[in-house]
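Reviewer 2 asked us to include a model.

Predict the structure of this chain.
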Amino acid sequence: MLIHDRDREPPAQEPPGGAAWEPNWRVWRWVLAAAIVVFAAASTTSGASTLLFLTGFGLCCRSVSEAVPYGDGLREWRQ
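Predicted model (structure tokens):
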């Protein structure tokens, strides 16, 4: 059985020296926000510092969830 008889297109040529690397800015915005909040928490001496540390932890978790592309587990399972 013949499924596909067309020739594939040649791959696109990369520039000399390889492809340019670009940072994932969606991750870095959460990292920067977490760093600012944790710095503010370290500068504060009241009960607000606890709330700021917990917020910083939540922002760190958010940055990890942006960095790791798959985390849905069995929600993607189909029969």
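The mean pLDDT is 81. The CA atoms of residues 29 and 39 lie 15 Å apart. We have added this to the supplementary material.
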